[in-house]
């Protein structure tokens, strides 16, 4: 059974959403406050989160951004104001879908179902296949569950950090330029520049390397780029 968290300060709306989702066998929790909603989203094992934008103590923009930094579960944003939806879309905070209030509960259920099944296909929970791992000298990357362990200790990577590390580790001993990595991980229409690659490599090293001055996994090839050592 999929677990859903609703962060919504209007109790009547939250209850309505909950009732409908429960009719379709989802397990639903409600949080009425922004900060508490974020805490719960981080700690609870939710499969999907529905966030209202205007909330007490912390708004939905911030919650969306913070959750997306560490989790890749689907995030649905709801708001009464179309302008806010346009704003969050423009900020690219990583929400998967946007719904303007008022919406019909059946529309919400349909979207929840669509995002959950898409996500399950993506992480491979649906087929019951075995997880796909990369294991090289103490580092273990679970590609299916998108988790990283160094000497059995889990390291929490953001979505892009994970993608970058996994790409390099999947092609060991191959030197990639920053441009190539940028193209590969941030797609073509992405705004930004290749300095992003350097920043992400630094952050990954801080998380996985014992000594960032002498990296044992991701090597810098001066004047060229990076490679994952085997
Ligand atoms: Ca609200």
Essential attributes:
230 residues, alpha/beta, Rossmann fold, Arc Repressor Mutant, subunit A, four-stranded antiparallel β-sheet, binds calcium ion
Question: How does the SSE layout of this entry go?
Answer:
Blueprint: E1 3-7, H1 11-23, E2 27-31, H2 34-43, E3 48-52, H3 60-70, E4 75-79, H4 82-91, E5 97-100, H5 105-123, E6 133-136, E7 139-142, E8 147-150, E9 153-155, H6 159-170, E10 176-177, H7 178-185, H8 195-208, E11 218-221, E12 225-228
Parallel strand pairs: 1-2, 1-3, 3-4, 4-5
Antiparallel strand pairs: 6-7, 7-8, 8-9, 10-12, 11-12
Helix pairs in contact: 1-5, 2-3, 6-8, 7-8
The protein binds calcium ion.
What Rg, in angstroms, do the CA atoms define? Answer: 20 Å
Give the CA-based shape.
elongated
Please bin the fraction of helical residues.
Answer: 40-55%
What is the mean pLDDT? Answer: 89
Q: What is the N-to-C order of secondary-structure elements (H for helix, E for strand)?
A: EHEHEHEHEHEEEEHEHHEE
What is the CATH class name of the largest domain?
Alpha Beta
Structural class: alpha/beta
* Main sheet summary: 5 strands, parallel
- CATH architecture term of the largest domain: 3-Layer(aba) Sandwich
User: Would you report the number of β strands?
Assistant: 12
| Ends apart, CA distance between termini | 40 Å
Describe this structure in words.
The chain is built from eight helices and twelve strands. The chain has 230 residues and is an alpha/beta fold. The chain has two domains: 3-123, Response regulator (Rossmann fold), CATH 3.40.50; 133-228, Winged helix-like DNA-binding domain superfamily/Winged helix DNA-binding domain (Arc Repressor Mutant, subunit A). Strands 2-1-3-4-5 form a five-stranded parallel β-sheet, sandwiched between helices. α2 runs parallel beside α3, α6 crosses α8 and α7 (178-185) packs across α8. The chain starts with a strand and ends with a strand. The mean pLDDT is 89. The site of calcium ion has 5 residues, from loops.
């Amino acid at each position: 059974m999929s677990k859903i968290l609703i962060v919504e300060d209007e109790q009547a709306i939250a209850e309505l959403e909950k009732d409908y989702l429960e009719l379709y066998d989802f397990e639903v929790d409600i949080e009425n406050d922004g900060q508490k909603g974020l805490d719960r989203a981080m700690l609870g094992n939710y499969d999907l989160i529905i966030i209202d934008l205007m909330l007490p103590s912390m708004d939905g923009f911030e919650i969306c951004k913070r959750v997306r930094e560490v989790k890749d579960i689907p995030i649905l944003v709801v708001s009464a104001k179309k302008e806010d939806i346009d704003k969050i879309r423009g900020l690219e905070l990583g929400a998967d879908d946007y719904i303007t209030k008022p919406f019909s509960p059946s529309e919400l259920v349909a979207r929840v179902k669509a995002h959950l099944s898409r996500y399950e296909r993506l992480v491979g929970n649906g087929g019951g296949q075995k997880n796909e791992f990369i294991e090289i000298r103490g580092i273990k990357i679970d590609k299916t569950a998108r988790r990283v362990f160094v000497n059995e200790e889990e390291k929490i990577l953001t979505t892009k950090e994970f993608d970058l590390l996994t790409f390099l580790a999947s092609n060991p001993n191959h030197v990639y330029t920053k441009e190539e990595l940028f193209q590969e991980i941030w797609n073509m229409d992405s705004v930004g520049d290749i300095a992003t690659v350097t920043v992400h490599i630094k952050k990954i090293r801080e998380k996985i390397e014992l000594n960032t001055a002498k990296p044992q996994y991701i090597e810098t090839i001066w004047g060229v780029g990076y490679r994952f050592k085997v």
